[in-house]
Design brief:
Layout: H1 6-27, H2 29-32, E1 37-41, H3 46-57, E2 66-71, H4 79-82, H5 85-93, E3 98-99, H6 103-107, E4 112-115, H7 123-132, E5 137-140, H8 147-160, E6 164-167, H9 176-180, E7 187-195, H10 204-207, H11 210-220, E8 224-231, E9 235-242, E10 247-253, E11 261-266, E12 269-273, H12 280-292, H13 299-317, E13 323-324, H14 326-329
Parallel strand pairs: 1-2, 1-4, 2-3, 4-5, 5-6, 7-10
Antiparallel strand pairs: 7-11, 8-9, 8-13, 9-10, 11-12
Helix pairs in contact: 7-8, 8-13, 11-13
């Protein structure tokens, strides 16, 4: 048997927890209910309307799940998000969704929850209410606005025995599935890119650049040891070094045309990630999760994405020095 590192033990523990959660979830009365009523928290993002429209326009594809109620807030302090709420509230009402005045009211009327609030700082307290009500939930990106809050959300999920997962839609970018299925052999490295708009209320890459970080960690897996970040007004480049010596990079852009993609270097060749194909692949994973209780995204990856982002901010604020992820995870 190989010698196990500290990370091995952490990973094994997390995977064991995930297995327990999946088995418990499948047997739980939560998932024995035939209800397919979904509630949305947060109408400050286009995702809320896009998900609802897809579910209602394709009932057979999405197994008859339907959004029946929505609570609009959501952030009350970020203008780029609050400005959207009136329009998205009007749009979703036209899709036969009831607007409610509190999360508590919403939870009494639904079986499952899409936590769509754009402001990651609110997710911990919103998720706490959902877990207490025993409603399985998908938490849209970012899971939170800090590693600490993300970890606490994990703890609450375990405490209340209510499963959840969080993901960017870019986890399902064209080409990623074949890479993860091993079609091209072992992943040796990756370079990915996405827009990285900065919102002052959040650590930089939690707001939008999280899409690129999620692509990188999805392709490379967990195990980033350290990183450095180069920051300019229009561009960020983050270079991460994994424990086994592999290197992965993120390029976040704030000028030029918005684009998502990358190259993943595998044993059998360099594989280009394709187009962003919309929200359908993610939505399929969400309804499968609601059906089964099986968690499709490893919690190790979700937490490493958060640690990676905080470490990148620390590197930026330290004039680009190399930062170990343990400086975040062991605080």
């Amino acid at each position: 048997m190989k010698n196990l590192t500290r990370r091995d033990f952490v990973s094994m523990g997390s995977l064991a927890f995930g297995a327990v959660m999946m088995n418990t979830a499948s047997a739980s009365p939560i998932f024995q209910s035939k209800g397919k009523r979904i509630g949305i928290i947060g109408l400050d993002t286009s995702h809320a309307v896009a998900f609802t429209k897809s579910l209602h326009d394709n009932p057979e594809k999405f197994r008859e799940y339907k959004v029946v109620a929505a609570y609009p807030y959501g952030t009350k302090t970020i203008p780029s998000a609050t400005d959207r709420i009136p329009k998205y509230t009007s749009d979703i009402e036209k899709l036969d969704v009831k607007i409610v005045d509190s999360i508590q009211s919403l939870l009494k009327q639904v079986d499952y929850v899409l936590l769509e609030t754009n402001d990651g700082r609110l997710h911990l307290e919103q998720a706490r209410e959902v877990f207490k009500a025993k409603k399985p939930v998908f938490i849209d990106k970012p899971i939170a606005a800090s590693y600490k809050d993300a970890k606490e959300i994990m703890n609450l999920s375990e405490k209340y025995n209510v499963p959840f997962f969080s993901s960017s839609s870019l986890r399902y970018i064209t080409g990623m599935k074949e890479i993860l299925d091993g079609k091209y052999g072992k992943v040796l490295g990756a370079d990915v890119y996405s827009p990285a708009t900065i919102e002052p209320s959040h650590p930089d890459f939690f707001w939008y650049g999280i899409h690129a970080v999620e692509m990188l960690v999805t392709a490379m897996g967990v195990g980033c040891k350290s990183l450095t970040r180069t920051h300019t007004e229009g561009t960020d480049v983050i270079v991460g070094v994994w424990e086994d010596g592999r290197v992965g990079t993120v390029r976040g852009t704030r000028t030029g045309a918005a684009a998502f993609g990358g190259t993943v270097y595998c044993e059998k060749g360099a594989v280009k990630l394709g187009d962003f194909v919309g929200y359908a692949p993610l939505l399929e994973e969400i309804v499968t999760f609601f059906d089964s209780g099986n968690i499709p995204v490893d919690s190790n990856q979700t937490l490493e994405i958060c640690a990676f982002i905080e470490a990148a901010d620390l590197s930026k604020n330290s004039q680009g020095r190399s930062v170990k992820l343990t400086e975040i995870t062991l605080k």
